[in-house]
């Protein structure tokens, strides 16, 4: 049965190539100075063509003609090795020309879309989306001849960005070869999931978009993690702007527990001049969070060895160069921020003191600022970041600090409803006592939870671009 399906698939692709409309009309060539994989030109490239940075030009899936070419090459191949070489070229070209899935030309009579997976991951795998009612079994990936390539082809109307997932053993997962994603709107109260997108260029032009980088390796840590890059609507405008950039921790949860992207959309729509590229850095898994978001020393029994310095080295040495090579972002500490919530706030503050040459702005939401300076948890002998703020030489960094507190007033850290307000207030006082630029917001009654951090995120985003707290209602 599989051989029959594969034969039908191959014939269908060749036939579709004949039935497809005439070749697409020529598009303007990219500027000769264009070097960014995801939209646009270098900041020093001068005046840009109006189309150079618009989504219709820079955001798209790979073209269906790559699959048609593959089938023609495979029909001429005389050995398994030649077919494998053809598939290798095909996969590389798909990545270079927009990522999965493949789509027919916009003027094609039948809006065809092809999904594929290579290797054992493609065996007994299906694709689901609005086009098949999210059925877990209606659209199987079919093995192509004796290769390790599995493909499915369907018609999907170009009525907007179309979400889909792959289905393996009944589990719905994002397509790891798809570049453009959107949260699937299910709060799993843990690590969340994303839909991959067909026709990503049809996303609402008034809102930002997410690009997924899966499995970004961390050299010193010896692990890999997903990174989601949010580019605001302003980034895709005809002016081809270069924007400031901020790195945010807990990059999956901040997009899927509560949508920080949605909060950013709302703020940037109201204040487009504040627009920035936001890089959401996920964890490999939750088990490493405490280690990677804390710093030496740590002598509490049973606690993991702190690896915050290694984590920050990943951001500085592995991630930042990739972001700066792939996106039109401004460089230098005054245009670069780092932010997070809870332990993410703690490691952000630490990063500001450790790397002021990289990060000129630090945002902390309900930061775990009671972390002790000697690493012994639950011993009241001075909190590490408060000690640094009050005793060490002043560094050229601005701080944003927010947190909740009981309605009746701040209580000691650890008490119900306190949201670590005591240590946060002490940190703000220490900063101000040394002359730091600091914006502070206390939300009485707010809990230590993503919903409250999302609600306060616009204040953080505003303060990143506006040094005067009053501009942001702080």
From TrEMBL:
Annotated spans, Disordered: 19-49
Lineage: Bacteria, Pseudomonadati, Myxococcota, Myxococcia, Myxococcales
Protein name according to UniProt: Conserved domain protein
Keyword set, alphabetical order: Signal
Pfam families reported in the protein's UniProt record: Esterase
Signal peptide: 1-16
Organism this protein belongs to: Myxococcus xanthus (strain DK1622)
Ranges annotated as biased composition (Pro residues): 23-32
Gene3D superfamilies (UniProt xref): alpha/beta hydrolase, Immunoglobulins
PANTHER family for the chain: ENTEROCHELIN ESTERASE-RELATED (PTHR48098), FERRI-BACILLIBACTIN ESTERASE BESA (PTHR48098:SF6)
């Amino acid at each position: 049965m599989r051989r029959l399906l594969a034969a039908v698939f191959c014939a269908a692709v060749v036939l579709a190539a004949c039935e497809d409309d005439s070749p697409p009309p020529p598009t303007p060539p990219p500027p000769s100075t264009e070097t960014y994989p995801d939209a646009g030109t270098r900041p020093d490239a001068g005046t840009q063509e109006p189309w150079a940075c618009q989504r219709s030009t820079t955001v798209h899936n790979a073209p269906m003609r790559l699959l048609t070419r593959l089938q023609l090459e495979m029909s001429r191949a005389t050995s398994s090795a030649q077919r494998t070489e053809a598939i290798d070229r095909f996969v590389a070209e798909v990545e270079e020309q927009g990522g999965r899935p493949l789509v027919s030309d916009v003027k094609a009579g039948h809006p065809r879309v092809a999904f594929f997976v290579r290797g054992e991951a493609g065996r007994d795998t299906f694709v689901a989306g609005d086009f098949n009612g999210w059925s877990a079994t209606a659209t199987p990936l079919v093995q192509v001849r004796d290769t390790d390539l599995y493909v499915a082809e369907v018609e999907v109307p170009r009525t907007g960005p179309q979400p889909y997932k792959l289905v393996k053993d009944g589990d719905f997962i994002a397509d790891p070869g798809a570049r453009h994603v959107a949260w699937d709107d299910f709060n799993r109260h843990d690590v969340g999931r994303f839909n991959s997108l067909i026709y990503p260029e049809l996303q609402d032009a008034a809102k930002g978009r997410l690009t997924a980088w899966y499995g970004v390796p961390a050299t010193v840590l010896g692990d890999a993690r997903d990174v989601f890059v949010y580019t605001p609507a302003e980034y895709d405008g005809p002016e081809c702007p270069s924007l400031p950039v901020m790195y945010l921790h807990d990059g999956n949860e901040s997009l899927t527990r509560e949508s920080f992207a949605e909060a950013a959309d709302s703020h940037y729509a109201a204040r487009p001049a504040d627009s920035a590229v936001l890089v959401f850095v996920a964890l490999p898994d939750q088990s490493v969070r405490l280690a990677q978001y804390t710093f030496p020393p740590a002598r509490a029994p049973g606690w993991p060895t702190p690896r915050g310095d290694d984590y920050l080295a990943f951001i500085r040495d592995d991630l930042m160069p990739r972001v700066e090579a792939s996106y039109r972002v401004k460089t230098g500490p005054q245009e670069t921020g780092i932010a997070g919530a809870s332990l993410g706030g703690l490691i952000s503050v630490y990063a500001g003191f450790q790397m002021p040459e990289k990060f000129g702005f630090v945002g902390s939401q309900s930061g775990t600022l009671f972390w002790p300076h000697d690493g012994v948890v639950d011993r009241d002998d001075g909190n590490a970041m408060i000690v640094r703020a009050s005793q060490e030489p002043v560094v050229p960094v601005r701080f944003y600090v927010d947190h909740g507190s009981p309605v009746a007033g701040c209580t000691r850290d650890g008490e119900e409803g306190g949201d670590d307000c005591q240590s946060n207030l002490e940190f703000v006082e220490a900063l101000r006592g040394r002359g730091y630029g600091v914006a502070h917001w206390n939300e009485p009654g707010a809990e230590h939870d993503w919903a409250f951090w999302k609600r306060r995120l616009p204040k953080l985003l505003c303060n990143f671009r506006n040094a005067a707290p009053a501009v942001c209602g702080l």
